[in-house]
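[SOLVED] Need 3D model of a two-part complex

Original post:
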Amino acid sequence: GDSVTQMEGPVTLSEEACLTINCTYTATGYPSLFWYVQYPGEGLQLLLKATKADDKGSNKGFEATYRKETTSFHLEKGSVQVSDSAVYFCALSDRNQGGKLIFGQGTELSVKP
Amino acid sequence: EAEVAQSPRYKITEKSQAVAFWCDPISGHATLYWYRQILGQGPELLVQFQDESVVDDSQLPKDRFSAERLKGVDSTLKIQPAELGDSAMYLCASILGQEGNTEAFFGQGTRLTVV
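Solution:
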């Protein structure tokens, strides 16, 4: 079945450092890809998405490009802030499977001042 | 701002007792999901509703879990009897249509602790 694999955390960075969180997926169809973020004590929020190959999603300085050839959707940010500390989830959704989200295990990011 | 409402936020229950969670999705959202998130893992789908109908409950442990969305609006997830392994965060989410490329809106979740 479809699945998502993320790099394991926790990831600890200093403020203004560059961030990359790796995400790869396995899917039989043509899924949409998402990054969700979960701040402490809160629910999941959509960070960005891409619905087809070569699309780039971006939001709040974060970017991710849908790479079909490498089945990847890595999350990147050039300069992280303390407020970016959260858990990040990569996910896919395949309309042939009713649109449900399949999540990776999450990567905890901690940014130190 | 429209949001998905869940209650309670926290629930502690004893093993073998019954427990219920409630979710009210964003108004007009036809599709509703219940996910379970075990600490340190990503959410996993328990059940998906399209209006009042169950679309996918393949991962719902039906011997102890039940879910309903009688009028196609709010939904209840029940566990009876609760087991220690049911301790987790239970998340409700909704989307406007049926397509998988739209944003899912999540509630803040119910954190269940079974003792």
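Edit: Chain A touches chain B at residues 4, 31-32, 36, 41-46, 49, 51, 89, 91, 93-95, 97-106 (CB under 8 Å).
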